[in-house]
Write a structure and sequence with these properties.
Elements: E1 8-11, H1 12-18, E2 28-32, E3 35-40, H2 43-67, H3 74-83
Parallel strand pairs: 1-2
Antiparallel strand pairs: 2-3
Organism: Pseudidiomarina donghaiensis
Pfam families: PhdYeFM_antitox
InterPro entries: Antitoxin_Phd/YefM (IPR006442), YefM-like_sf (IPR036165)
Length: 92
Amino acid sequence: MYTVKRPRVTTVSGFKKEIATMDVNEPVLVTQNGEPLYVVQDPAQYEAMQEQMAMLKMIALAEKDVRAGRVVSSDELFKGLEEKGALDDHNS
């Protein structure tokens, strides 16, 4: 089973001291007075997380379409694509 790794935690003052050398390969939770204030993470990881969220949204929409009966068979799909010229002659 997949478990969520807890981020490293630091205070605002600790963050200020470490900012130039801080490793943000994993998210860092910055707290103030014991309360979460910011989450700092590597830009590449942030982008990957955004892509994962977009994929999850697409899956949720697809599941909703399936439940509503908005589905077609693969034969119908390919026939429709061929009719629209979306498939080249090499894939026929």
